[in-house]
Amino acid sequence: MLAFLFIGVAVPLAHAWLPVDHALRPSTYAVTLSGKFMCYAWVAIAMDLIWGYTGILSLGQSLFFALGGYAFGMYLMRGIGREGQYHSDLPDFMVFLDWKTLPWHWWNSDSFLWSVFLVVAAPGLLAFVFGFFAFRSRIKGVYSSIITQALTFAFMLLFFRNETGFGGNNGFTDFKTILGFRITDPSTKASLLAATAVALFGTFVLARWLVTRKFGRVLQAIRDAESRARFCGYATLGCKLGIWTLAAVISGVAGALYVPQVGIINPSEMSPANSIEVAIWTAVGGRGTLIGPVIGALLVDASSVRTAPARRR
User: Fold this and answer.
1) Of all helices (H) and strands (E), which one includes residue 55?
2) Which member of 5, 146, 238, 294 has the greatest number of CB atoms within 10 A?
């Protein structure tokens, strides 16, 4: 994992400090791709916590990932200001749809701190409410997979509608600034990648700490024989709900860092196929290992990337 941290810090520093024509300077494409893969690896860790260690096969992690992306995307859209195509204080898609004011859920969306709160609260609250009713009803196995996939598909259809105020099928894009810094600047891109690498390492350390403590052993007991764990006096509902909500928050924060680096968020990120791909990363790398799903995410996604044009920037 230290190797990923080194790459995540060395690549952005080289991109920001070395001259444009330097042979060792990573391209903008490489920096963006590295950030994208690290965000995916983050989601893979979350998936391993709930599936590899707790035995809950979720096909809805892409929903939490996208919710975090949309929550932060609203802040980035407000940061465009009058630099948009219509030179309006409203996002371009709202002007195109003849909206006169921001919808209620865009309240205070120009605040960075509020957007950070939403990044955590939106996926976390949805996961908590859904998990409470699902786990209390003792839904598990294939039924859990189906219901999480159905939830993801329902939200994807909802976000495709223009009336929801999330940009319809186009979503959010054409971001200009973040915290007053131009997103296209090499230093900004480098900072985002470095922040993603450090956060990924921190998440891995947190996850490792959790699974090596008593809480982690209880999760594995729930995975192997939940009824026995419950009869032994462990609060299985609370344990499952806690790790489920934590995994949703991790995925949401990953989505928030994904959006400014990739430059777009739309409902296709919520597609059930994306959630299935998260499960594939975990299965390929090895369930219950933490580092395995990270490697699995990198291997699966790297194999699907075409060779970029030489020295692309």
Assistant:
1) none
2) 294
